[in-house]
Structure formats: C-alpha cells, structure tokens
Amino acid sequence: MPAGRYRSRTLRRVYKRTPGNKVKLVYKKRKPSKAQCAGCGSDLKGTFRGRVPVMMNLPKTKKRPERPYGGVLCSRCARRKIILASRQ
To answer: In angstroms, rounded to a whole number, what is the distance separating the alpha carbons of residues 11 and 6?
Structure first.
C-alpha cells in the first residue's frame, strides 16, 4: 500500500523503468489545465501547459503564439478585435 501522502489522486501515478531494469511507481504532480481565451472561453491552441519550474526554463516563444494577443485571445477573437480596432 502506498504511503499516506500518496493515497489520494492529487498526484498521478507513473510507472518508470529504472537503470537496474526494474519498473518502479513514481508519483508526479498533474499538469495544469489548458489556458483559456479571455473573449470566448475556448481552449487556446499553441500554448504550453507545464508546471512553473518547467515554464521558467522555456523561451518565451515556446510559451505562447507569436501574434498580437497571443496567449490571451484565440485566433478568432484576436482577428475580430483587430478588425474592429481598424474600423474606428
């Protein structure tokens, strides 16, 4: 039976093969939820989902798309907002 701190499903269970060719159960934290569009609430494409220590070591270009409102609005909402701004 796992230790008390591992009994809940807060941590996910991953089977890893060790250098000694044994399979060991390792407990890892779960991935955070996907980033959502501020306009429509749909899941954003092209954004990285990772925990903070991993995200800190990634370059900025890997974290979100290279376009205006990248990582905040989906492409549809960003396109709509840019068109509306150009009309005024």
So the answer is: 7
Q: How confident is the model at residue 2 (pLDDT cuts 50, 70, 90)?
A: confident
| Strand positions, DSSP E, the chain | 11-17, 23-29
Q: Rounded to whole angstroms, how far apart are CA atoms 25 and 75?
A: 40
Tokens describing residue 80: 């709509």
pTM of the model: 0.70
The residues spanned by each domain of the chain are 1-30, 34-88
Q: 52: which 2 tokens? A: 């903070």
Task: Scan for tokens 């991993």, then name that residue.
Answer: 54
What's the CA angle centered on 18, arms 14 and 20, to 5 degrees?
A: 155
Residue whose entry in the numeric block shows the structure tokens 């909402």:
77
